[in-house]
From TrEMBL:
Gene that this sequence comes from: CPOX
Enzyme class of the recorded protein, top EC level: oxidoreductase
Domain of life the protein comes from: Eukaryota
Keyword Ligase: no
GO cellular component terms, semicolon-separated: cytoplasm
PANTHER family in the record: COPROPORPHYRINOGEN III OXIDASE, MITOCHONDRIAL (PTHR10755), OXYGEN-DEPENDENT COPROPORPHYRINOGEN-III OXIDASE, MITOCHONDRIAL (PTHR10755:SF0)
Alphabetic keyword roster: Heme biosynthesis, Membrane, Oxidoreductase, Porphyrin biosynthesis, Transmembrane, Transmembrane helix
Protein name, entry field: Oxygen-dependent coproporphyrinogen-III oxidase, mitochondrial
InterPro entries assigned: Coprogen_oxidase_aer, Coprogen_oxidase_aer_sf, Coprogen_oxidase_CS
Organism: Sparus aurata (Gilthead sea bream)
A biological process term (GO) from this entry: protoporphyrinogen IX biosynthetic process
Subunit structure: Homodimer.
Length: 455
């Protein structure tokens, strides 16, 4: 018997996860999901990772699981009971931040964003907060302390905290350790790449941060103008600052989905000293097999975060995500989507940043419950082979369509290892592969060819 655990995250992430999971579990119970051996008892707390407590007024949840962790067999056995619920390009020199030409739509923001009272920045000074990071930040701590009220500093702290929380949560479930690789860019700035390979749970897990600065190239400036940006540089130069956190996780078990997220900020200083700025990003899930409960949990967690700010955000950004992560030559989406947005520059900088914080803080509660749910689930050789085929599609999208990867590979000074970190260690391509009708593989393809509404 195993007790479901969540990682220890900040208050907002815990609250979001609690609301989503509790709502999800009550929904399953009321729907008569008797095949899920769930013990839902009235208490005052929910068990989390060792050494943590998640205070909850009124409910506690225990989960029972069976099966053999990570083993492959010829038949599925010991199915797990409910146990809890663009590519990694941030390290490229300008990569994922400049490569947004021909985007599908502009983010239509509300005239007024409702501020979540829980969306407060962590207390404590810069130095104290930096002690919890995977490495020292890219920008010198003394400079961060001097500019702690500026958006560039606040965003750098957010992405460093997001990286640290996610990496620590993944290490807790896997038992492995991330290799932390800090790099510098001669043109300005640098990044921190955290990669874990050949772990017990994750074949490859990467969580990157980049904070870069310099001058826009003419090619990059043209791409900005093609998106409706009116840019006026001094002597042909446009100073810029770009930063973001990006991650792709490839699990070993085909019943644990691949997940990707990226949240970024861009700022340009024009000739008269005025600044243009915008945010972008999103989170999406790529399962090998369809699991409706997982899909609901993932999308509902994102919807709760979006709904704090505007009721149109989730439906609009969900559609945008389905359009962006589309493999045109296959006629199918990369996965079951999530949210995606770009050029977010209204209604105010503070309110846009508040929305991005809400999104970034869903990363752990969106994904870790799904990981724990399938952690001990066995799988067959055939299921593993199907996972390899689906990974091949993932590679095709990243190398053929992803704007960040394409731009990064073509940009001088880009860090190639960090750009290609998004690719799995192993994948498979079979000639004229098509699953038999009526199989779970065929049902997966049907969803990818006809995106669904999960919430």
């Amino acid at each position: 018997m195993a007790t479901i655990v969540f990682c220890s995250v900040n208050k907002t992430a815990r609250t979001t996860a609690r609301r989503c999971l509790t709502s999800h579990l009550k929904g399953l119970a009321s729907a008569g999901e008797s095949h899920l051996p769930l013990s839902y008892t009235h208490s005052s707390s929910l068990t989390l990772l060792p050494g943590t407590r998640w205070l909850s007024r009124g409910s506690s949840v225990r989960f029972m699981s069976h099966g053999t962790a990570g083993r492959a067999g010829r038949t599925r056995r010991g199915a797990l009971a409910l146990g809890g619920a663009a590519a990694v390009t941030a390290a490229a020199a300008v990569a994922g931040f400049l490569a947004n030409a021909n985007h599908f739509q502009r983010a239509e923001m509300a005239t007024k964003v409702l501020r979540d009272p829980e969306e407060k920045e962590p207390e404590g000074d810069i130095l104290e907060r930096c002690r919890g990071f995977m490495s020292p930040p890219v920008t010198d701590i003394a400079l961060l302390q001097q500019t702690k009220g500026e958006m560039r500093t606040r965003m750098e702290m957010l992405i460093m905290e997001t990286q640290a929380e996610f990496c620590k949560a993944l290490q807790e479930v896997d038992g492995g350790t991330f290799k932390v690789d800090q790099w510098k860019r001669k043109e300005g700035g640098g990044g921190i790449s955290c990669v874990m390979q050949d772990g017990k749970v994750f074949e490859k897990a990467g969580v990157n941060v980049s904070v870069v600065s310099g001058y826009l190239t003419e090619e990059a400036a043209k791409q900005m103008r093609s998106r409706g940006k009116v840019l006026k540089g001094k002597d042909g130069k446009l100073p810029f600052w770009a930063m973001g956190v990006s991650s792709v996780i490839h699990p070993k078990n085909p019943h644990i989905p691949t997940v990707h997220f990226n949240y970024r900020y861009f700022e340009i200083e024009e000739e008269d000293g005025s600044k243009q700025w915008w945010f972008g990003g999103g989170t999406d899930l790529t399962p090998v097999y369809i699991n409706k409960e997982d899909a609901f949990h993932f999308h509902n967690t994102l919807k709760v975060a979006c709904d704090k700010h505007h009721s149109k955000y989730y439906p609009d950004f969900k559609k945008w995500c389905d359009r962006y992560f589309y493999i045109r030559h296959r006629g199918e989406t990369r996965g079951i989507g999530g949210i995606f947005f770009d050029d977010l520059d209204s209604p105010t900088q503070e309110e846009a940043f508040s929305f991005v914080k809400s999104c970034a803080r869903t990363v752990v509660p969106c994904y870790l419950p799904i990981v724990y749910k399938h952690l001990n689930e066995s799988f067959t050789d055939e299921e593993k082979a199907w996972q390899q085929v689906r990974r091949g599609r993932y590679v095709e999208f990243n190398l053929v369509y992803d704007r960040g990867v394409k731009f990064g590979l073509a940009t001088p000074g880009s860090r190639i290892e960090s750009i290609l970190m998004s690719l799995p260690l192993t994948a498979r391509w079979e000639y004229m592969h098509e699953p038999a009708k009526g199989t779970r593989e065929a049902k997966m393809l049907d969803v990818l060819r006809n995106p669904k509404e999960w919430v």
